[in-house]
Amino acid sequence: AALAALTILSVNWVTVAHLKEVYDGLIFETNIPGELNSIINFFALFAFLINLIRELIKDAEDVEGDTCTGCRTLPVVAGFGKTRILLLTMILITLVAINLFFFNDLHQNHWTGGVYLLFFIMVPLTWLGYIILKAKNKNDFSRASFLSKAIMISGTAYALVWMLQFKLLYQ
Questions:
Q1: For a tag on the chain, would you pick the N or C end, based on fewer CB atoms within 10 A?
Q2: d(CA 134, CA 70)
Q3: What is the pLDDT of residue 156?
């Protein structure tokens, strides 16, 4: 999970350095670097949290096999109850972070991005929290794992939505 976030952040560092070189520092007189930093930091945080959530879900899904092989995953060591609380807390943190970005999108009249975030990331994340809250067996965690994959894909696709908004705004 940390590697996913670090990869995204390293792209940001290279991009900003490249912009400085190409535009000889003039780019920093605009709000473009700030917007790039904002979106890239958002993606890094989202990638970290959703990857960690998915890994914990997969550990909960495979608790029987991990117990048999002696793997000391969080669900094996701490149990489903504590794992469920941690997962729900992480989903809540992710939803709060997305809400901040969502309202920023709406404040800047980026309605397309805001609507996308609402229906393709926030609603499914809320549903994921509900599934985890009610999960009792491997099948429930399998459904949660599948949904977390879909949320990851939606989060990645948001980059295209944001890029289109950005192009339209700065044409």
A1: C
A2: 27
A3: 86
- Is 80 exceeded by the pLDDT of residue 154? yes
CA–CA separation, 70 and 66 (whole Å) = 6
User: Residue 129: what residue type?
Assistant: G
Supply 110's token pair: 């980026």
Gap between the Cα atoms of 150 and 132, Å rounded: 15
59: tokens are 């550990």
Contact indicator for 161, 116 with CB cutoff of 8 Å: yes
Q: What is the mean pLDDT of the chain?
A: 84
Which whole number is the average pLDDT over 65-90?
92
Please tell me the number of Cα atoms within 13 Å of 150 on its side-chain side: 15
Rounded distance, CA 5 to CA 47, Å? Answer: 6
- Running DSSP on this structure, what letter comes out for residue 31? S
Work out the burial of residue 7: count CB atoms within 10 Å of its CB; fewer than 13 is exposed, 13-18 middle, 19 or more buried.
exposed
Average pLDDT estimate for 124-149: 95
Q: Are 135 and 141 in contact (CB under 8 A)?
A: yes
Does the pTM surpass 0.85? The reply is: no
